[in-house]
Q: What sequence folds into this?
């Protein structure tokens, strides 16, 4: 029997304390759950030292799911004040609501993930002496590795001014540091709609684009699968029936779904159809060791603008250059560095900073050392490589890096100063100029008339050849718009407005681009514009009727999904557009929840998702339907039956993957949801459905314990027999319920409650 935890070993202790304690504790093997596991909810037992049994050095790789970020609910229930106007249907207790101002506060919420995914990207390009200095500090990937975690949460409020001149303070603003010239996705001319597309260098048409997307989705699935397997192996026994009965899934999100969304939105490539990952600024850094600092800075600037390191033609090279002088506090003279910094400002302008760092490597035992947090927004491929290295290398060390507290303070000051005084004002200035000089000409009656004149010949009912050519004259046959084209500038304007959270300007600009991209048959650009127009409209703080939603949101999401999935063979874009649309619709409540559920079912039917994504999406549909409230004491109009059904289906999906913890959580949630029905009978009168749930319960009860794998040969034989029986039962289960699971047998027993 495991010993109870001491008072000072609370579950809220930092994760760094886990490996040492876990490696020193031994626990007996048991097939059934222990009293501690039965008495603790999953959120506590996951961080409990008594159940950690895996490689201590690899524990930090799974911190995002062992300690879910944030403690607030992901459910929309209770968020925003309900409107008192009449509902759209008699069963809707609340009308569709706007998103609350604090709806994106929790880091695990989908809205927060959207706001932190589509952020300004800042490239880093450094000199060789700066890379050598970073290597001495223990960062083999250079200055980028050191700065990356600090850009994900800029300290303090950032003041942003919208297109109307109104200023507001934004908490939790973030930027994404990237390596200059890394992760470039070349255009695909085969999806442009042109008859004779020009060949793209280094690409093999749509097959290469589709294979990239499939590989990305496979990496995301593999990362979440590794986290799930690690959690399964970390428990002494599988959870038993009723462990999660008192937990409401609609009140907290699965950390694995939050991880799935983060990895799906991480590592956006520099692509021609959207400009979120195009650099807003480039940090050009040298160290105080450089013998010719001014000449070196000019050489680095030339390489980013004209040399071999120059970005492709469809990336605007007129981005901010921010010059940084890294001063070595331990080996160089600060007086000389200050003089050099003043010289930099005279020659290069005001966008400069003196970053003072210590060159020695910090250790965990140092008095003033603090751990450098792992990036929450690393790409799926990067995290997967770390996980595989921890599994293959017996001498794998904890990847946590430590820095001096003085270095952390200097970096925070540098990042905030660069964002508040250089990046945001530069973006605001570009938005104002592009809006006045390019986008304003397309708005209003005059702009619409000019747009029609581009596409149609005067006095004729059919499109002329001149009209067709003029509508495509800015679209390159290789599959992209040049950076100087009006369409490319307007797309950048819309993306800048979205990153600065000016939703109205972003949505109106995306809406203008939809028709332009459709006329040019630039289908991937067309899909991306429809996707972001729908997301901007959903985030905007305004009420939306069912009719308006059907005419705008539904059509935009349908156009985005069809263009991504059918015309462009881009499963990543199709998955991203419907997933984010589903989550934002769910947050609005009311009849939007039913619409969100339909898009979720559409995504499941498309077969884009893998096994893990399929189970997570079914789990999300259960939460989505469970968040809809009903009217009266019988909760007319709620979707509790649908929520419970999707919980059962998600439990079955998890069980087929041998993820017993998740399966038990979903099955207990289904029992809890059925118990809330007014008649309290659940599905007792649905024979096939009851048998199906009983088979799931039986499978969980007889699932082999992971700890029994270490038993002797005699015990292994018993496990093999149980596994064979379990597999045989799973193969029979779908056929037993395929025809009668949803057969209504209550007609002869009385009227159902309609939920």
A:
């Amino acid at each position: 029997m495991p010993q109870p935890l001491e008072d000072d070993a609370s579950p809220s202790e930092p994760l760094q304390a886990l490996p040492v304690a876990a490696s020193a504790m031994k626990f007996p093997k048991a097939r059934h759950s222990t009293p501690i596991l039965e008495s603790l909810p999953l959120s506590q037992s996951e961080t409990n030292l008594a159940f950690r049994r895996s490689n201590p050095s690899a524990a930090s790789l799974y911190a995002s799911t062992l300690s879910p970020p944030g403690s607030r609910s992901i459910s929309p229930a209770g968020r925003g004040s309900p409107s008192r106007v009449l509902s759209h249907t008699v069963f809707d207790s609340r009308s569709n609501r706007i998103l609350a101002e604090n709806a994106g506060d929790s880091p695990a919420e989908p809205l927060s993930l959207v706001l932190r995914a589509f952020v300004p990207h800042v490239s880093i390009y450094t000199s060789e002496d700066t890379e050598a200095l970073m290597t001495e500090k223990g960062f083999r990937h250079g200055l980028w590795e050191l700065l990356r975690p600090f850009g994900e949460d800029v300290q303090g409020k950032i003041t942003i001014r919208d297109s109307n001149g109104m200023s507001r303070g934004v908490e939790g603003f973030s930027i994404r540091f990237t390596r200059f010239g890394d992760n470039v996705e070349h255009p695909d001319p085969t999806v442009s709609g042109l008859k004779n597309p020009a060949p793209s260098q280094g690409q093999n048409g749509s097959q290469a684009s589709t294979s990239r997307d499939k590989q990305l989705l496979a990496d995301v699935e593999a990362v979440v699968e590794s986290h799930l397997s690690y959690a399964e192996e970390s428990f002494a026994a599988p959870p038993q029936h009723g462990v999660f009965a008192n937990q409401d899934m609609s009140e907290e999100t699965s950390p694995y779904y939050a991880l799935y969304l983060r990895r799906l939105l991480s590592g956006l490539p520099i692509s021609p159809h959207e400009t979120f990952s195009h650099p807003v600024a480039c940090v050009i850094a040298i160290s105080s060791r450089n013998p010719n600092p001014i000449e070196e800075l000019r050489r680095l600037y030339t390489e980013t603008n004209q040399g071999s390191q120059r970005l492709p033609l469809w990336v605007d090279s007129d981005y901010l250059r921010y010059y940084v002088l890294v001063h070595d506090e331990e080996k160089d003279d600060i007086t000389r560095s200050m003089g050099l910094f003043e010289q930099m400002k005279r020659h290069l302008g005001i966008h400069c900073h003196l970053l003072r760092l210590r060159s020695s490597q910090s250790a965990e035992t140092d008095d003033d050392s603090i751990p450098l947090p792992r990036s929450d927004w690393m790409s799926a491929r990067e995290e997967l490589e770390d996980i595989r290295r921890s599994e293959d290398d017996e001498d794998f060390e904890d990847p946590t890096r430590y820095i001096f507290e003085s270095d952390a303070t200097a970096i925070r000051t540098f990042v905030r100063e660069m964002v508040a005084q250089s990046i945001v004002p530069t973006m605001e200035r570009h938005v104002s100029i592009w809006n006045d000089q390019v986008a304003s000409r397309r708005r209003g009656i005059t702009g619409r008339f000019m747009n029609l004149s581009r596409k149609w010949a005067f006095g004729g009912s059919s499109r002329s050849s001149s009209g067709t050519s003029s509508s495509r004259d800015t679209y390159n046959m290789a599959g992209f718009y040049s950076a100087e084209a009006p369409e490319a500038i307007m797309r950048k304007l819309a993306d800048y407005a979205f990153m600065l959270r000016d939703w109205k300007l972003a949505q109106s600009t995306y809406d203008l681009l939809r028709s332009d991209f459709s006329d040019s048959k630039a289908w991937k650009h067309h899909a991306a514009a429809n996707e972001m127009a729908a997301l901007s409209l959903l985030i905007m703080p305004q009420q939306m009727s069912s009719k308006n939603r059907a005419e705008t949101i539904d059509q935009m999401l349908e156009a985005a999904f069809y263009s991504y999935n059918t015309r462009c063979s881009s499963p990543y874009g199709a998955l991203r557009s419907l997933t984010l649309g589903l989550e934002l619709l769910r947050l609005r409540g009311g009849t939007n929840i039913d619409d969100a559920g339909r898009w979720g079912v559409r995504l499941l039917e498309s077969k884009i998702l893998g096994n893990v994504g399929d189970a997570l999406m079914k789990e999300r549909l259960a939460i989505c339907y469970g968040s809809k409230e009903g009217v009266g004491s019988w909760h007319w109009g709620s979707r509790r039956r649908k929520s419970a059904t999707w919980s059962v289906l998600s439990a079955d999906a998890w069980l087929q993957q041998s993820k017993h913890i998740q399966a038990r959580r979903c099955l207990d949630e289904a029992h809890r949801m059925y118990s809330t029905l007014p008649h309290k009978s659940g599905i007792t009168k649905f024979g096939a459905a009851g048998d199906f749930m009983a088979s799931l319960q039986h499978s969980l009860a007889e699932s082999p314990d992971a700890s029994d794998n270490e038993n002797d040969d005699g015990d292994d034989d018993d496990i093999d027999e149980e596994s064979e029986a379990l597999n045989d039962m799973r193969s029979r289960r779908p056929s037993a319920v395929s025809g009668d699971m949803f057969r209504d047998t209550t007609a002869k027993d009385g009227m159902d409650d309609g939920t």
